[in-house]
């Protein structure tokens, strides 16, 4: 089996029974804020895109690059489609010209021509990616690979049960806007960033230890930020709170916990994998490349500046009545929302900074009142401040997922009262009838379900499944005093009261174990 690195979470896997291209991403994503690093735009994509199979793990724009898929990937390729609750991924791929689809069933092995076996595990909660995330397992001629990319399964046993895995590809770096965009003192921002960075690595080590693959490939991050307004987010400034460590940092941190089997893929690197060995060649010296990271980023910044400028020039739509359009689009969804609206529990304010950089229009999405209206001087649960043209552009393109566009762009600042509220972000990724109905149904089902199985942790009897996304707390749970932390997503619970310390809702069942 031959694995060619093609940047970020992307790779081409060649076997004797066919080739698979995974998650090709080249063009900037999220309002031209994210770029792949190292740069992969100069690879021979005409050849790389001539494949038998295409796997797009999910609809995040650093995995689903519509322009690149349309131009470079063979439309004869069969799409390995995850079993998602909505049809959006299939619909968007069909619109690009793909016609052949293998609609997989989650956690079910499918045998293709030539003895190639594949299995896709689809994660389908409203907080998994843009309504869905997935991992690809494949086997040919006794060699097994798991491409976990961004996905966060509650456990990896379903893959391990299919046989020993030889190569494990997984995310290790940040893919979020927290805490950088929050209006906090720098010391607090650094402290929260360091906590998140540490949690990212802890989760990665847990997955690696669970699967015990022969070789571990750090992929799916980090992006780089080439716009001057976002340059500070690159991990080149000696900031211990930066959540975007690169592959060289992964190798260093992995070594501290005894890891010796890490394999870095640069764009153009090739790993030849057998059941007994691996041999990897690179287009340049890996250590030397990352040692000169700042210089590479500066060269990319200069080269990509015209692309960023062109994108920025397309965002303004002064003809759009923002308040009127938001009322028309969001108020019907508020009327239909029960669980998400109740979960948000208060008004959310958007401060839109005008073209002159000074005037501000404040608009409130009033979840209890089920309306969109001008701000009326009240307290709000969340406040977002961004450029007016970004909201105009979201309206212009009829974007149904603001999380997978505005928020991941980091082109905003935020403040909140109280704990993190997952329902705010769940709602703003569900600005379509299909997505909202699915999310409401999912929360309805999980509100009514009772997790009766228990586990013993640190002198406490607690429900075995995390109230957040059902992670197995017997594996991911750690108790420190009276606080339980679920390491899968870093959520914390006060055990005596059962209260979630990370977000509203999500009560846990727990009692002190009798001595």
The chain-level mean pLDDT equals 94
Q: Can you count the helices?
A: 15
Shape: globular
Helix fraction bin: 25-40%
Q: What separation lies between the terminal Cα atoms?
A: 55 Å
Description:
- It is a single chain.
- This protein is α+β, with helices and mostly antiparallel strands.
- Helices cover about 30% and strands about 25% of the residues.
- The protein has 15 helices and 27 strands.
- The strands form six sheets. It has an eight-stranded mixed sheet with strand order 7-6-5-3-2-1-15-16, with no helix packed on it. Strands 8-9-10-11-12-13 form a six-stranded mixed sheet, covered by helices on one side.
- α4 (about 155-160) links the parallel β11 and β12 (about 165-170).
- The protein is globular and about 65 Å long.
In a few lines, what is going on in this structure?
This protein is of the alpha+beta class and 515 residues long. Helix 4 (157-160) links the parallel strand 11 (143-149) and strand 12 (167-171). Residues 462-501 form the Rieske domain.
Task: Output the keywords.
515 residues; six-stranded mixed β-sheet; 15 helices; metal ion binding; RibonucZ/Hydroxyglut_hydro; metal-binding; Rieske 2Fe-2S iron-sulfur protein; iron
What topology does this entry show?
Layout: E1 2-5, E2 11-15, E3 18-22, E4 35-36, H1 45-48, E5 53-55, H2 66-72, E6 78-81, H3 88-95, E7 100-103, E8 110-111, E9 117-123, E10 133-140, E11 143-149, H4 157-160, E12 167-171, H5 186-211, E13 215-219, E14 223-224, H6 247-256, E15 270-273, E16 278-281, H7 286-291, H8 293-313, H9 322-336, H10 339-344, E17 347-353, E18 360-366, E19 371-374, E20 382-387, H11 388-396, H12 403-409, E21 412-416, H13 422-428, H14 433-448, E22 454-457, E23 460-463, H15 473-476, E24 477-480, E25 483-486, E26 491-494, E27 510-512
Parallel strand pairs: 3-5, 5-6, 6-7, 11-12, 12-13, 17-20
Antiparallel strand pairs: 1-2, 1-15, 2-3, 4-14, 8-9, 9-10, 10-11, 15-16, 17-18, 18-19, 20-21, 22-23, 23-27, 24-25, 25-26
């Amino acid at each position: 089996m031959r694995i060619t690195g093609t940047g970020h979470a992307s790779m081409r896997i060649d076997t004797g029974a066919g080739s698979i291209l995974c998650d090709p991403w080249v063009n900037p994503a999220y309002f031209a804020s994210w770029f792949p690093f190292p740069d992969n735009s100069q690879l021979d994509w005409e050849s790389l895109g001539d494949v038998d199979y295409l796997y797009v793990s999910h609809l995040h724009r650093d995995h689903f690059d519509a322009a690149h898929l349309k131009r470079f990937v063979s439309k004869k390729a069969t799409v390995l489609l995850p079993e998602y609750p909505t049809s959006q991924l299939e619909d968007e791929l069909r619109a690009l010209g793909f016609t052949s689809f293998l609609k997989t069933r989650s956690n079910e092995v499918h045998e293709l021509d030539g003895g190639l076996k594949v299995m896709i595990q689809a994660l389908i909660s409203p907080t998994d990616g843009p309504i869905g995330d997935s991992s690809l397992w494949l086997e040919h001629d006794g060699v097994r690979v798991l491409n976990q990319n961004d996905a966060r399964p509650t456990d990896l046993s379903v893959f391990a049960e299919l046989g020993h895995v030889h190569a494990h590809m997984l995310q290790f770096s940040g893919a979020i806007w927290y805490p950088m965009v929050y209006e906090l003192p720098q010391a607090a921002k650094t402290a929260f960033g360091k906590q998140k960075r540490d949690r990212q690595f802890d989760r990665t080590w847990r997955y690696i230890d669970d699967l015990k693959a022969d070789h571990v490939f750090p992929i799916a991050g980090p992006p780089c930020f080439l716009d001057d307004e976002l340059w500070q987010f690159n991990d080149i400034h000696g900031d211990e709170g930066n959540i975007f460590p690169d592959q060289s940092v992964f190798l260093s941190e992995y070594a501290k916990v005894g890891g010796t089997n890490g394999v870095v893929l640069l764009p153009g690197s090739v790993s030849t994998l057998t059941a007994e060995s691996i041999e990897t060649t690179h287009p340049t010296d890996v250590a030397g490349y990352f040692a000169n990271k700042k210089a590479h980023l500066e060269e990319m910044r200069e080269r990509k500046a015209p692309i960023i400028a062109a994108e920025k020039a397309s965002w303004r739509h002064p003809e759009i009545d923002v308040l009127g359009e938001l009322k028309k689009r969001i108020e019907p969804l508020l009327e239909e929302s029960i669980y998400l609206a109740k979960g948000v529990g208060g008004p959310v304010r958007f401060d839109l900074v005008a073209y002159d950089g000074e005037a501000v229009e404040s608009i409130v999405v009033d979840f209890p009142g089920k309306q969109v209206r001008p701000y009326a001087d009240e307290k709000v649960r969340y406040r977002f401040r961004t450029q007016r043209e970004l909201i105009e552009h979201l309206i212009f393109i009829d974007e149904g997922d603001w999380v997978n566009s505005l928020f991941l762009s980091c082109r905003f600042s935020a403040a909140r009262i109280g704990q993190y509220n997952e329902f705010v972000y769940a709602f703003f990724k569900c600005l379509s009838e299909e997505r909202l109905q699915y999310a409401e149904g999912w929360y309805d089902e999980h509100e009514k379900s009772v997790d009766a199985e228990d586990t013993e942790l640190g002198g406490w009897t607690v429900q075995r499944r995390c109230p957040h996304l059902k992670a197995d707390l017997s594996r991911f749970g750690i108790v420190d005093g009276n606080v339980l932390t679920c390491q899968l997503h870093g959520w914390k619970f006060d055990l005596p009261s059962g209260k979630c310390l990370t977000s509203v809702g999500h009560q846990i069942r727990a009692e002190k174990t009798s001595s």
